[in-house]
Write a structure and sequence with these properties.
Largest sheet: 10 strands, mixed
Number of helices: 17
Structural class: alpha/beta
Strand order of the largest sheet: 10-11-13-12-14-15-16-19-18-17
Shape: globular
Helix content: 25-40%
Length: 576
């Protein structure tokens, strides 16, 4: 699959050249919550890196090809770039090529504890990219491995078997005589350029089906075919113990329209905005107004990443609604506080809704918000500040920080993700409440709004807690999650207080607590409104770190889709 949709925003001053980089043995895998890798301390070593001169997409959308060969040094790396067509392919498809340097003793594919742990070293190479002189980075769910020999094939397979989340896909040849990888912990996408009965049997056990083994040998043409048919369409998300595969989004083929650095929304700040919109063919073919979903990405992310992460595009095509994936205006971080000292993202999103109404008629009674992490925080705040606009929210792994904290109170959190942020230079203003909170209060005073919201949390996700704390919430926890529930339950007249230590996965007592699907537990609270409707849902997902599973989004949509906002501000539910 060819992807010419992504804006190329990573441009290295050293692009087009082969650069040697040091890989410290103490390199940390803590990149940011959904892009972390687990890596132990080892020896200081080095790698060679080729970043395409043509540029790369946002780091969360950039693929990294690790090329394992038996010989260290620039000569073998340049030979692979030239003879296997890797340089030309990287320039055309905008991915990073990394050559981890093997030791003289060769790859430790047998995981001999008396030797250097090469699996950790290879993962450290990925973790070292963001701070390298090349200055490019990629996403850990798109680390691929190309093995150029029997020994390097064994190394790639050992990594795939023991650390599947660090090897989204592998291209390998025959294994050394007598070598058998350890049993696979999870399914593994693989391309065999040489036939090997042992390896084919191993992959059959791992995947439940026979692999395709071309037997065509290692060549530029074979690599190009593997890229087109395997690497370019494969992505592994870190949203379970060993991750899950989800096909990459074919933005062009599915009809997405991209606006990059667009100033046409008529906003007074004049800031250029980037967003990606999808009007499914079935919607475009009809004159009827269609529902609209706005999906808000997490901090240090981008809209196209949100599109692939969430699966909202597939639901839009299935159920006939439109969806927009905007980029935050500044520093890949939303102004969740609606603070005028930063670009006003709330005004931006409202303008996007008007823009979409010009693209295709929007059913204004059915406009919904969804978001992940800081995007979830923004969805919480935006829906509270403009309840008359939105009919429901699907919020994933982010509490209501913009309502509960001011920008000044949130400064430390923002600087953790970007130490050079403009937030660090903003003088405190002494505000006791955020402008978003104040606006929400004014709207609530004018009309007794309710907001359907499905709030997802991962039971292995510490975001929203003090450092080191995880679910369930404890009685002495004064963090953002208990405050978020208190605020929303009060807003939706579903009880102003609740008890902790209830024995539920979240620690909160609720009116209902039921298992949903394979690993979700849903809690609900009934409102005191007529017929006791349920507006607030809290869904805890087992084995879930700071990430998103498509099943969550689908479940959330199946709840909020039945709500609509009447012109007078009240809600309607179609009864399904």
């Amino acid at each position: 699959m060819r992807n010419d949709f992504e804006p190329l925003v990573q441009r290295s001053a050293l692009g087009g050249g082969l650069v040697r980089e040091q890989v410290s043995g103490s390199t940390s895998g803590a990149l940011n919550p959904e892009n972390n890798v687990e890596v132990a301390v080892g020896s200081d070593r080095s790698m060679l890196v080729y970043a395409p001169k043509s540029g790369c997409p946002h780091a969360k959308q950039t693929q990294v090809l690790m090329v394992l060969r038996d010989e260290a040094g620039e000569t073998s790396a340049r030979e692979a770039l030239d003879c296997l067509g890797l340089a030309a392919l990287a320039e055309e498809r905008h991915f990073v090529v990394v050559f981890p340097e093997p030791l003289e003793s060769g790859w430790n594919y047998a995981a001999d504890s008396s030797r250097e742990d090469d699996a950790d070293f290879i993962v450290r190479c990925f973790a070292a990219l963001p701070k390298s002189s090349v200055g490019v980075a990629g996403f850990n769910g798109m680390i691929y491995h190309l093995a150029c020999s029997a020994q390097s094939s064994a190394m790639a397979m050992m990594l795939a078997a023991s650390r599947p989340m660090d090897a989204a896909a592998v291209m390998v040849g025959r294994l050394p005589e007598g070598f058998l990888p350890p049993e696979a912990k999870a399914p593994q996408v693989a391309w065999l350029y040489e036939q090997d009965a042992t390896l084919e049997e191993w992959l059959f056990r791992a995947n439940g089906e026979a692999p395709e083994a071309s037997g065509g040998g290692l060549s530029a043409g074979e690599v190009a075919r593997a890229w087109e048919q395997m690497f370019s369409v494969t992505r592994r998300w870190r949203n379970d113990v060993f991750g899950t595969y989800q096909p990459r989004t074919d933005f062009v083929g599915e009809g997405y329209v991209s606006h990059v650095d667009d100033c046409s929304l008529g906003l007074v700040d004049g800031c250029p905005r980037t967003w990606h919109e999808l009007v499914p063919r079935s919607v475009a073919a009809s004159d009827s107004p269609a529902p609209l979903v706005i999906y808000l990405h997490g901090i240090n992310c981008c809209g196209s990443y949100g599109a692939e992460q969430s699966g909202w595009g597939s639901l839009a095509a299935r159920d006939g609604f439109m969806v927009v994936f905007p980029d935050a205006t500044a520093e890949m971080r939303w102004n969740v506080w609606n603070d005028p000292r930063l670009p006003l993202d709330m005004v931006y999103i409202l303008a996007l809704i008007d823009h979409m109404d010009e693209v295709h008629p929007v059913d204004r009674s059915r406009v919904y918000l969804s978001g992940f992490s800081m995007g979830s925080m923004f969805a919480n705040a935006l829906s509270a500040a403009y309840p008359e606009v939105f009919a429901g929210v699907v919020a994933l792994n982010g509490p209501s920080m913009g309502i509960l904290r001011t920008l000044d109170e949130s400064r430390e959190m923002v600087l953790q993700f970007r130490s050079s942020s403009i937030v660090g230079g903003i003088e405190p203003n002494g505000a006791e409440a955020s402008p978003a909170c104040e606006l929400a209060g004014k709207k609530k005073a004018l009309f007794n709004y309710r907001m359907p919201i499905v709030q997802f949390v991962g039971l292995l996700d510490g975001v929203g807690f003090d450092r080191g704390r995880l679910w369930p919430a404890a009685a002495d926890d004064a963090g953002l999650w208990p405050q978020t529930l208190t605020w929303w339950l009060g807003y939706d007249a579903s009880g102003e207080a609740f008890s902790l230590g209830a024995g539920t996965p979240t620690g909160f007592a609720s009116d209902t607590c039921e298992r949903v699907g394979e690993r979700m537990v849903e809690q609900t609270w009934r409102s005191s409104d007529d017929a006791s409707p349920v507006y607030y849902h809290l869904v805890a997902t087992e084995r879930m770190p700071h990430a998103v599973d498509f099943a969550q989004v689908e479940h959330g949509w199946d709840i909020v889709r039945h709500w609509s906002r009447r012109p007078d501000g009240s809600l309607a539910n179609d009864g399904k």
